[in-house]
Design brief:
Elements (H helix, E strand, L loop, with lengths): L4 H12 L3 E6 L2 E7 L4 E6 L10 E6 L5 E7 L1 E6 L2 E6 L2 E5 L5 E8 L14 E5 L2 E5 L5 E7 L1 E6 L2 E6 L2 E5 L5 E7 L6 E2 L2 E6 L2 E5 L5 E6 L2 E2 L7 E5 L2 E5 L5 E5 L3 E6 L2 E6 L2 E5 L5 E7 L15 E5 L2 E5 L5 E7 L1 E2 L7 E5 L2 E5 L5 E7 L1 E2 L7 E6 L2
Antiparallel strand pairs: 1-2, 2-3, 3-36, 4-5, 4-37, 6-7, 7-8, 8-9, 10-11, 11-12, 13-14, 14-15, 15-16, 17-18, 18-19, 19-20, 21-22, 22-23, 23-24, 25-26, 26-27, 27-28, 29-30, 30-31, 32-33, 33-34, 34-35, 36-37
Length: 373
């Protein structure tokens, strides 16, 4: 299936900026949150003109105990010991005790203006520009960028004057502004950049190591990157060599040695030689919502219910849930009767389904949501 660069950009924005959007599933509408660890869901009645429910968000620990009471208009998972929270149109950061380490002071005009911490720094908007703060809230890289992303592998992707470049943690521009908008952060030592509308890969010196080519290219995962052009899909290695030519309708990134593929409406998995490891047989979530192995298991839909299989395709947790999320830190969210709880890897319910909203666990904590009173 041919996917436009614009569609791919939307995909990547959702994956790496915690975007939230609504998706209709099984007669109810589910809000799916794309996170590094997996997906989150939040149910509401599927009435077209009904306003979205007002929620308050807090945090639970691995026992399901509420450790930070629901008090925020929005909250995100913990990174580097701090979690981003929003009240009204401003955001700040709390620690695991619920203390506001960085006061709620940064104005949010859109969902991307304030991001989570990564490698000790977080991009925030101050006035018309973006800069970076440390975990004490001190501005360490002055607001000077039109847009800025989280640090990955020691570098951050920034935009100024319609061009993208990269900075180090001192704020020094180490790779000059020269690339187009559809450029991404570093992954496994390489960054996908836009060179006159074509996709290339650079190393941390800014040297182009894989020349520009048509179509779109995902970032590297486990040494391979997916490329698509004119209905064809293939994987390249870090030299740019094509190593797997895909004969499927769709192919995804590798996770834990396997990559999800689609044939018609069914999903399966291939290994790094391109051999089919699990034949396409499962109905599944689409490309935005997960379907990657996490902690040795992946969620699949069989009939009208969801369960989990292992890398041999064996059912480990029988299909019994209305909706599930990938495992993170040994636990996975599940939905039953429009309420969300958590199971362990045996399928045992360890946190009862009491929540209207729940995130994957991160650093021992998970965002939870309840209707605002």
């Amino acid at each position: 299936m041919e996917v436009s660069l614009a569609q791919y950009m939307e995909d990547m924005e959702m994956k790496y900026r915690d975007s939230r959007y609504w998706r209709k599933v099984w007669g109810i509408e589910i809000m799916i949150v794309i996170l590094a660890a997996g997906i989150t869901f939040y149910a509401k009645p599927a009435v077209q003109d009904e306003p979205l429910p007002k929620m308050k968000y807090g945090f639970i620990d691995r026992t399901g105990q509420v450790v930070i009471s629901p008090q925020f208009d929005e909250a995100w998972e913990f990174h580097d010991g701090l979690a981003r929270v929003r009240s009204g149109n401003k955001a700040g950061y709390v620690n695991k005790s619920g203390q506001l380490v960085v006061p709620i002071q940064y104005e949010i005009k859109d969902m991307f203006d304030v991001a989570s911490f990564s490698e000790g720094l977080a991009p925030v908007r101050i006035g018309a520009k973006k800069g970076y703060i440390d975990k004490n809230g001190k501005v360490v890289i002055s607001p000077q960028f039109d847009d800025a992303w989280a640090f990955r592998e020691g570098y951050a992707h920034v935009q100024s004057g319609g061009k993208c470049g990269f900075i180090d943690k001192t704020g020094k521009v180490v790779i000059p502004y020269q690339f187009g908008f559809s450029s991404f952060s570093f992954s496994e030592g390489l960054a996908r950049v836009d060179v006159n509308g074509k996709g290339a890969f650079i190393d941390t010196t800014g040297k182009i190591v894989i020349p520009p080519q048509e179509g779109y290219q995902r970032e590297f995962h486990e040494g391979l990157a997916v490329c698509t052009y004119q209905g064809k899909t293939w994987y390249i290695d870090k030299t740019g060599k094509s190593v797997i030519n895909v004969q499927f309708d769709e192919a995804e990134d590798f996770h834990e040695g396997l990559a999800r593929i689609r044939v018609g409406e069914k999903y399966g998995y291939i290994d790094k030689t391109g051999k089919t490891a699990i034949s396409p047989q499962f109905a599944g979530l689409d490309g935005f919502n997960g379907g990657n192995f996490s902690e040795g298991l992946v969620h699949v839909k069989i009939g009208e219910k969801w369960g989990y299989i292992d890398k041999g395709g064996k059912i480990i947790i029988k299909p019994q849930f209305d909706m599930v999320a990938p495992f993170s830190e040994g636990l996975a969210g599940f939905m039953m009767a429009k309420k969300i709880g958590y199971i362990d890897k045996t399928g045992k319910i360890v946190i009862k389904a009491n929540f209207s909203y729940a995130d994957p666990f991160s650093e021992g904590m998970a965002v939870m949501g309840v209707p605002a009173k």
